[in-house]
Design brief:
The protein contains 13 helices and 3 strands, in the order αααααααβββαααααα.
């Protein structure tokens, strides 16, 4: 029988090679499965072939007792369902013990969004007279114009940007490519960055990346995360902010101005439209708050 750690490694290799999932996604699956394997070794020392439905329910109960949120428990169960389905398909176990376990009910958390004034203040925060500030202004403009994930933004290659036609070719989850329109404002800032900023950053070096550091390397997600927090503070934005908040704001503002949900789904790169539908709840909630705050009989 395959060792549990070896079985997990085989499954993660399957996700990477056969399904082409992103590194971050695979690492998240690995953490969830490892949590169960640690529980298994600590509580029962059962081999994977001996894991039953009741074993898994005991594990989920331990997560509940540890006060893990329903959303986190649902995610971990989803990871285990995929893991045990793979083991059953590869005949490493005789049957899938996770097959009929129901996912914990979760309430979809409404994402944080910025209003238009806050977006304008955030975009204006970098100093474009500094080459790093010019690059950051272009990055913020592109993110708000396209709704790219931060991983897609920092991985964006110069060859995938068509300024004449006004779109970028983003590579999303599962290496799926999609075309996303660029607004004129974002195109102008990219042109300025390509003309005045990037040559001074990259100097004699070469890189396929559009956005580069002062060492000519691709900007990291962690660096951009820190920069956006710094700019939010400078702009006087008190809300909790991250690159994803700008993506949420992009989607919410499109829907508030009448965009079709399917079009927004395509631009965001969501495989399932139910993921995009959360933004309709955001817009309804904002309308309710506006009515409550300003209607004389609310």
């Amino acid at each position: 029988m395959t060792d549990p750690q070896q079985a997990m490694d085989l499954y993660l290799d399957h996700l990477r090679v056969e399904r082409g999932l992103a590194v971050n996604t695979i690492e998240a699956y690995g953490r969830d499965i490892q949590r169960f394997l640690d529980f298994l070794a600590r509580e029962s020392s059962l081999p994977l072939a001996g894991v039953s439905r009741s074993t898994l329910l005991g594990f989920l109960l331990s997560l509940d007792r540890a006060h893990l949120a329903a959303r986190s428990r649902a995610r971990i169960l989803s990871s285990l369902k995929g893991f045990f389905r793979f083991l059953a398909q590869e005949e490493m176990i005789s049957e899938n013990p996770a097959g009929d376990i129901e996912t914990p009910k979760t309430m979809a958390a409404l994402p944080h969004v910025l209003n238009l004034g806050e977006v304008e203040a955030l975009l204006a925060a970098p100093n474009p007279e500094d080459i790093g500030g010019l690059r950051d202004r272009a990055m913020l403009e592109v993110m708000y114009a396209t709704g790219l994930r931060v991983s897609e933004l920092v991985s964006l290659e110069t060859a995938r940007v068509n300024l004449e036609a006004g779109y970028v070719r983003a590579v999303g989850k599962g290496n799926k490519e999609r075309l996303v329109p660029l607004g004129e404002e974002a195109r102008d800032w990219i042109r300025r960055y390509l003309s005045e900023g990037r040559p001074r950053l990259i100097k004699a070096r070469t890189s396929p990346s559009l956005f580069v550091s002062r060492r000519g390397k691709k900007i990291s997600r962690q660096y951009f995360w820190k920069r956006i927090k710094t700019y939010a503070q400078a702009a006087g934005i008190a809300k909790e902010i991250s690159p994803h908040v700008l993506r949420h704001s992009f989607a919410t503002h499109l829907l508030e101005h009448g965009a079709d949900l399917r079009v927004v789904q395509m631009m965001l790169g969501h495989a399932d439209i139910s993921t995009t539908q959360i933004y309709t709840h955001v817009t309804r909630e904002r309308l309710r708050r506006v009515h409550q705050d300003h209607h004389p009989r609310a």
